[in-house]
Fold each of these.
Amino acid sequence: MGFTVYFLNTFPSEAQVSKIFRLFTDLLWDIDQIKFENGSYRSFIGRKEDIVVVSPEIESPFLYLEELVLDHINLFLPLSTAKWGEVEKLLQRVWEEENVFHKKVFVYRSYPDAVENIPMELSYNVLLNEKYLSVISEERIPLLETEEFFTSEGEELEEVVGKLLRKRHLTVSTAESCTGGLVAATLVNVPGSSEYFKGSVVAYSNEVKERILGVKRETLQKYGAVSAQTAEEMAIGVRKLLKTDIGVSTTGIAGPGGGTAEKPVGLTYFAVAHPDGVEVFKKVFPYDRNQNRLSATYFILYQLYKLLIKGV
């Protein structure tokens, strides 16, 4: 799912761009392009494409979703980034009403200027906005079968991962190349993380991968530093080196240069080594250097979360 982001009648600050990428990383959504236009957000409501509209004309976040599908999502955000977190919070409130927690959005149909005229028999016609949550609670809203949402309390992903590690008395370490220590830094954002996080090796060069983490020279020569095989050996190596229950690794091409036809910019391999084996993941991120690193960080934390939920 790729979105086009429209900034209407405004030019975004660095903080706005960073915030919107963080929001999309949390939602596991992708951004295809960013455009700058003039006009009213009302002309964008109901467009047959996945869009995000940011405008000073918008006061609070709301979503327009096209019937019972995940296609054609229209997300509208105010200029103030302080309010953007309401999108996740509102989704969580809806999930709590139904006693089901889902990662992806389900379906509503509504126009922000005509909420009072919504027929109650149309169970999908509600506006996802704090002011109208009472409408949601009065009706049964069908949910799509999707991935579980990671929290109903508004916590950050690293907090939830930390709670699971602490609950299961597990320790974790990281071996990072392209993320440059960002996974470790994110984990230690949580107070008390020293109970489960033991350390990290930022293995940016092949020499460090080989000499410190034990990645085989033959692996690097045959498959390259950015490969599933290298990610696997990095995760195994850091788990062994720091004597933790779980070892997490990242290796990729953050950009803007360094990509090839076979290995494009944004290509990242991940691995999670645990007592029962090793899980390897691959993802290509289409952003700039810093956002690719941030997206990679939250991608692997989410994979770690899912493995912990499964009992790894």
Amino acid sequence: MLIVAIALVVVPFIDLPTAGILPDRLNAPGSLQLLGLCLVFGALAMTYDLLFGFTGLLSFGHALFFAAGAYTFVIAVTVLRLSGPAALGITVAVALLLPLAIGAVSLRTSGIAFAMVTLAFAQAGAVIVGQDPWHATGGELGLGMSYEKLPQFLVGVVNTRYLYWISLALLIMVAGIIWWISGSVTGRVWQAIRENERRVQILGLRPYTFKLLAFVSASFLAAMCGVAFVLLVGGVNPSIVSAEFTLTLLVMVVLGGAGTRWGALVGGIVYTFLDQRLVAMAGSQAFASLPAPLRVPLSQPLFILGVIFILVILFRPAGIVSLFSPPARRRE
């Protein structure tokens, strides 16, 4: 892991061709932005896996907290004209209080009812963003980032490497926190709730308290991913509030391997990379020369992603990471 981390840190210093795998040379701004997005969504998928994979909470509203972090930061900087640290402080407060309030209500239910309640909150958030209250969210057009109040090293294409390093630091922070908590006593209680919540209650513990802690922790980290996302792309749009975006996170987690140490991270990176690059590959000359029965479906990135997802579910139900696990573990 240390070798991988060092390799990721030095990527902006490596000037190598990528043979079309990335938009440009390895250390070019376009390539670094794509790699940064992969790291952010890998971290975001890990936060969702904390709910779904480790605690067994199927939420259809996780995107709301990612969007809350992104929108809060952009509004604080662009509309309220606050400095970067002040905007981050407000975002942290929202990232703690919003999931605490929503989780306190949603976790009074369980199972499908819990999923539907979180979906209702996510839909409410999407409606609020679309209505553009006080002209703060930009409505359907979204809202661009104003860089006047941000440090200079975050401004401009030439500084994309710093945004890449911020994304990498975020991933390391999220991974470290999740792995530390999941290996603690609290993490073992979360896994026990996933397996048999009634048994945890019989042992004298309060599942509601532990589930609320998992909900707030995962949502807070998702909001921090939203801040890194908006720095990378330079703005927000309503698509990140939708329930469909949460379903995308679910696909990432299942694709990589739910409830495993590396699964959500791998699934998030692989899905994001393919989602971004398949569009460019579909417009290449190689695809254009294929026969129509092949060219039409293969030119649709969602079709290719869907086929990959189906194949993984059929032949590797435990996710991509099961390919690298010992044979005994795979049989289990």
